[in-house]
C-alpha cells in the first residue's frame, strides 16, 4: 500500500523551513502533497497562483512531491485524497499549543486521519512566513531563509518600498 501524506498550509510565502519539512516528508512517505489553503481569511501577500507556482518550481525535480490546493475543511480534503496522515512542522514550544488543538480537532472530525509532527533543521526553527514578509518589507535580507525564487519575488513586491500585502501567520 502506498503511503500518502498531506502537508497543508498557507505558504505565504514558502520558506526554507517548509522546504526542509517537505524534503523530510518526501523521504518518509511514498508521496507528499503540499496542500495550499485557497480561502485564507487573512489577506495573503502572494496570490494562490503564485504560491502554487513557487512550490511547483522548487520541487520540480522531486517526482513524489505534488502541489495542490484545498478549500474548506482540511480533513475533508485529506479524506478525498485517501491519505491517512497530515504532516505539520513544529518549530518551537510556542507552536505546540495551537498545533495540538488543530490536531485534536481534526482527529475529532475524522478519527481515521492522524497528524504527524516533524521538526525542521535547527537553523530554520525561528523562521516564519510572517517574519520573512516583515523583514523583506522593511528592506532586510532574507537570503538563505527562503528559496531563491521567493527572495526574488519579495524583492519585486517590495521594490517601491513599504508593505505590499497582509501579515499572514506561520
Ligand atoms: O500555514 P498555516 O497557516 O499555519 O496553515 C494552517 C492550516 C491551513 C493548516 C489550517 O488553517 C487549516 O487546516 N485550515 C483549513 C480549515 C480547517 O480544516 N479547520 C479546522 C481544523 S483547525
Mean pLDDT: 93
- Strands ordered across the widest β-sheet: 3-2-1-4-5
The ordered string of helix (H) and strand (E) elements is: EHEHEHEHEHH
Count of beta strands: 5
Bound molecules: 4'-phosphopantetheine
CATH H-level homologous superfamily name: HUPs
CATH architecture: 3-Layer(aba) Sandwich
What structural class do you assign from the helix and strand content? alpha/beta
- Radius of gyration from the CA trace? 16 Å
Number of domains: 1
The largest pleated sheet is described as: 5 strands, parallel
Low-confidence stretches: 164-169
Percent range for β-strand residues: 15-25%
The top level CATH class name: Alpha Beta
How many angstroms does the end-to-end distance come to? 33 Å
Helix proportion: 25-40%
Overall geometry: globular
CATH fold-level assignment: Rossmann fold
Name its key features.
5 strands, 17% strand, 170 residues, disordered C terminus, alpha/beta, five-stranded parallel beta sheet, Rossmann fold, globular
Task: Give the topology.
Elements: E1 4-9, H1 16-28, E2 31-37, H2 48-58, E3 65-70, H3 74-80, E4 85-89, H4 93-109, E5 114-118, H5 129-137, H6 148-157
Parallel strand pairs: 1-2, 1-4, 2-3, 4-5
The structure holds 4'-phosphopantetheine.
Structure explained in plain terms:
This protein is α/β, with parallel strands linked by helices. The protein has a single domain, classed as Rossmann fold (3-Layer(aba) Sandwich). It contains 6 helices and 5 strands, in the order βαβαβαβαβαα. A 5-stranded parallel sheet has the order 3-2-1-4-5, with helices on both faces. The longest helix has 17 residues, at about 95-110. The chain is globular and about 50 Å long. The model is unreliable at about 165-170 (pLDDT under 50). The structure holds 4'-phosphopantetheine (PNS). 4'-phosphopantetheine binds next to strand 1 and helix 4.
Amino acid at each position: 500500500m502506498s503511503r500518502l501524506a498531506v502537508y497543508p498550509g498557507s505558504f505565504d510565502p514558502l520558506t526554507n523551513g517548509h522546504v526542509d519539512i517537505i524534503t523530510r516528508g518526501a523521504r518518509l512517505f511514498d508521496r507528499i502533497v503540499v496542500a495550499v489553503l485557497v480561502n485564507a481569511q487573512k489577506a495573503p501577500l502572494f496570490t494562490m497562483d503564485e504560491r502554487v507556482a513557487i512550490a511547483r518550481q522548487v520541487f520540480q525535480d522531486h517526482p513524489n512531491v505534488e502541489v495542490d490546493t484545498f478549500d474548506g475543511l482540511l480533513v475533508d480534503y485529506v479524506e478525498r485524497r485517501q491519505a491517512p496522515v497530515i504532516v505539520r512542522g513544529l518549530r518551537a514550544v510556542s507552536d505546540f499549543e495551537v498545533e495540538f488543538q488543530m490536531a485534536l480537532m481534526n482527529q475529532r472530525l475524522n478519527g481515521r486521519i492522524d497528524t504527524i509532527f516533524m521538526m525542521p533543521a535547527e537553523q530554520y526553527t525561528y523562521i516564519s512566513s510572517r517574519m520573512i514578509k516583515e523583514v523583506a518589507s522593511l528592506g532586510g535580507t532574507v537570503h538563505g531563509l527562503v528559496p531563491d525564487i521567493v527572495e526574488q519575488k519579495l524583492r519585486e513586491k517590495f521594490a517601491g518600498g513599504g508593505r505590499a500585502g497582509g501579515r499572514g501567520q506561520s
